[in-house]
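[Archive record]
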Amino acid sequence: MPTEIDPHGLYCYLAFQSIHAPLTIYKHVRKLPPGHLLTVTAGGRVEVAPYWDFDMQPDESRRDADWEEELEALLRDAVTRQMIADVPIGAFLSGGVDSSTVVKLMHDAAGQRVKTFSIGFRERAYDESAYFNLLRDTLGVEHHATTFEPDLLKDAGDVVRAFGEPCSIGSAFPLYHLSRLAAGHVKVVLSGDGPDEIFAGYDLRYQHLQRLVALHRVCPAAALGALEGALSVTERLPATSRLGNHLRRSRKAAAAARLPRRSWMAFLAMNRSSFAAPARLLSPDVLRQVDQPLPYETAFDRYADSPDWMTPFIYADIRTLLPGERFTKLDGMTMAHSIEGRVPLSDRRIVELAARMPSRLKFHRGGGKRVFRAVAARHVPREILTRPKVGFRVPLNEWFRGELRDLTLALPDALGIGSSGWFDATAVRRVVDDHLSGRDHLGGVIWSLVAFDLWWRNLHAGGPRVGG
């Protein structure tokens, strides 16, 4: 098989930490997009066509209570269906609203104790053990837990190999360990992936977007330009400065609000620093070859002119981020340990129902997943429902300044980075210097570069293994 790298696939990878269908890292290989059918005719012609999609058409005629009742019924049915198996089955339990809802609905449907699996962290900022232990005690599940104590050098190589192409989603590290724990007890696990994308659950992201809408409506472009210029002083402030980070976000918001709404995606599509990584890191020759929209942009464009500013983001999230990142991570890490991950909260019928809901049932008054949380409140303890959103995070910034510092320092001269011709070596050195000095927090971007280098070496040299 030809192994020529696709500049579009590489660009997508650096922006999103994974490569969305139909792109792959290889120029002459394509993924079959979700909801599509590939047909090969008798004459050898290959055709790819969609067999399923959903329309974002809000219905304002129904009462909120009616939406909640229908969602409740679908959630129960989806979880019950996904529990059908002729092998032992369990669930991942993080202590968040989504996974807790799955476990409670499994508990209601099961005729025996549900097996649950959790992973805690020694770092308090990342640990959710108090919450998954609360649900454990409330439901009396058969609970199995471990503490995340990685061998980072070995784990980095194992995680990269499990994906098969570059993928640098940081939370894959603990999920890899959690899947290994579950594999000792079950063959199928249910996960809570889906509601954040389907019901606009990324609160901070949508709060920022809401501010952009307000700025765009009330401030003339000249005023926004002046504000952006005045805030340029923030570049001199360290990343450890809370004021500096707040002002930097304000400057970016002012810059983005000057653009047409279609361009906001380039500023805030994922509300993370990596979205700017391709333009920052790839060589000019590579950037010139990226002349087609990414899959996220294509999905976004379908509803770019919607009067509801949330609609294009929600649609693009469901069409690209959910399968291209969440499902990719879950499938890669579970299959690495020969177990199957299932996602009942992403059932097709739930997506179709949410697509008909007014946006106010999703993001409202600064909070996401409004209707989902209303249903979840019937099933999970109040402490879980009202806790701050944490997410399945890992301390990448600390790792690449600490235990993996040598790996960070070696990046500019690494085989897949300095010698491959794909990256601007000066820009890579700047990223490394900015991160190690504390001027910026770029652990996610550095992990993307490290993961690409590991994949490159495995492809071209059978790789030396990291740490080996």
Observations:
- Residues 21 and 33 are 5 Å apart (CA to CA).
- Confidence is low (pLDDT under 50) at residues 463-468.
- Residues 397-468 form one domain.
- The beta strands are 36-40, 46-50, 89-92, 115-120, 142-147, 188-190, 340-342.
